[in-house]
Amino acid sequence: MDEVQMLVAHSERVTLRVGDVFLKVDVDQARIDAEVEAIALVPVPTPKILWHKPPVLAIAAVPGTALGRLGEPSTASPAAWAAAGAAIRKLHDAPLPPRRGRAGRDVDELTAELDGECEWLVTNGVLPVGLVTRNRQIAEAALRPWDPAFTHGDLQIAHVFVDGDEITGIIDWSEAGQGDALFDLATLTLGHEEHLGDVVAGYGTDIDLDVIRAWWSLRSLLVVRWLIEHGFDPFAPGCEVDVLRSRL
User: Fold this and answer.
1) Pairs from 103-111 (Cβ < 8 Å, separation ≥ 24)
2) What SUPFAM superfamilies does the entry give (predicted)?
3) Overall pTM > 0.90
């Protein structure tokens, strides 16, 4: 053990790394409970839970390296991206967990939240009205009925670990639960549209690509304010604002 690394730190949660152990401190006990519950249920590789004493969860590091990072080119092979798609399909086909997750928000509630965020972005001059309006139009395709699946709920590429072409672990299950399967696929490929075909090939079923693209717009519109308020930069190259601009 050489040092303590602070990986994530904001008002809601902190994640520290000490050697091969990750310590997650979360003010919302429900998120920790959801993570423990999901790791026990999912049919894909996950980190080992070492101990759990609220509000702290200790988990072991998984082998391999992250599939990529938002805003950076991914060095992972097409086969690794396809393997991620296959793992997600296995997750989505698993028996439903008892709780609803982040990807399972009610359509009316989600629509109201989206409209509120769009108004805030325009009123405060954060983004041009044309950019917000166009992406709000695209996002509409994601606001539809969906069949529930076992979803991860925060399937960023940094949460999927690979060794060569094999998936070695998927981390950060605090938002897991019943939800829209296409939300997971869109989150994984956000900012990495060039790998969408590989993921879909691994997933192995027909996917409505317009809904995936709609989720890219919807998710990006929803998180810009949160990112700014919590010290992150959605304007960084390749990140959320660039995703919105790419839809024009």
Assistant:
1) 103/151, 103/152, 103/153, 103/175, 103/177, 103/179, 103/180, 103/181, 103/183, 103/184, 104/148, 104/151, 104/153, 104/177, 104/178, 104/179, 104/180, 105/179, 107/143, 107/144, 107/145, 110/143, 110/218, 111/143
2) Protein kinase-like (PK-like)
3) yes
Assess if residue 4 is contained within a domain: no
- What rounded mean pLDDT belongs to the chain? 94
Q: Which domain holds residue 168?
A: 63-246
Number of domains in the chain: 1
The letter for the amino acid at 186 is A
79 falls within a domain: yes
pLDDT band at 206 (very low <50, low <70, confident <90, very high): confident
Q: State whether residue 134 is helix, strand or coil.
A: helix
Q: Is residue 229 part of a domain?
A: yes
pLDDT > 80? residue 91: yes
Q: How far apart are CA 106 and CA 88, in angstroms?
A: 22
For residue 223, give the CATH number of its domain. Answer: 3.90.1200.10
Quickly count: other Cβ atoms within 10 Å of residue 164's Cβ. 11
